[in-house]
Structure formats: structure tokens, C-alpha cells
Specification:
Elements: E1 5-8, E2 15-18, H1 20-28, H2 39-51, E3 70-73, E4 80-83, H3 96-105
Antiparallel strand pairs: 1-2, 3-4
């Protein structure tokens, strides 16, 4: 009844297979829309939702009290850091790996 279907991921642009088994599972759960992201992009989107990234509802609020995360540059390694506060110029901001190292030094 179902046949494998190739779908173009809306995030990374790569093609992925929506297998007959997955289609059958979706139908058994009453899901009518096909996935729009490949499995790895779905995992990233799920993680971002869990972290509260991109959770603004457009009215200045958030969904379920999740933290608003802010991007910053790590003062130690120069990499990207996501922090649950608005960074200020007078205080250093660290990514999670560097924060652990700095905290251990103190």
C-alpha cells in the first residue's frame, strides 16, 4: 500500500527517504502531514525547542515559560555561546565547555 518516497529537507536541502514503514506509522498515529525535515535536522529542531531557542510566539512572550536564549561570543575560545541572559559588555561570557573550565579554576 505504501511506497518509499524521497523528500527534500526544508532546512539542509538534502534529500531523504520517507520509508513505507514510516508512512504506515504516521498513518497509524493519525498524522496527515509528511515530514519536512530529514532525521538529523528534526533532531536539531527538537533540541532547539527543548532549549527554548526560537520559541517566541510573536507577542513578546514565550511558550510554556521556556528561557529565551541569547547568542554571544565566548571570551575564552571565541566560539558561539548560547546563554539564558542578555550579555553585557562589562562581563565575559563563556560557552558551556569554557564555563566549566573557568569555574574549576576559581
Amino acid at each position: 500500500m505504501y511506497a518509499d518516497k524521497t523528500i527534500h529537507c526544508r532546512d539542509c536541502g538534502m534529500d531523504f527517504v520517507f520509508s513505507a514503514g514510516e508512512q504506515e506509522f504516521y498513518a497509524s498515529k493519525g498524522l496527515v502531514n509528511e515530514p519536512q525535515r530529514c532525521q538529523s535536522c528534526r533532531a536539531v529542531a527538537k533540541q532547539n525547542r527543548a532549549l527554548g531557542i526560537g520559541s517566541s510566539n510573536g507577542n513578546g512572550g514565550d511558550h510554556g515559560g521556556q528561557r529565551e536564549m541569547h547568542a554571544a561570543v565566548c571570551a575564552e575560545c571565541g566560539g558561539q555561546a548560547l546563554v539564558p541572559f542578555l550579555p553585557r559588555n562589562d562581563r565575559p561570557v563563556y560557552c558551556s565547555n569554557c564555563f566549566d573550565k573557568v569555574r574549576d579554576r576559581v
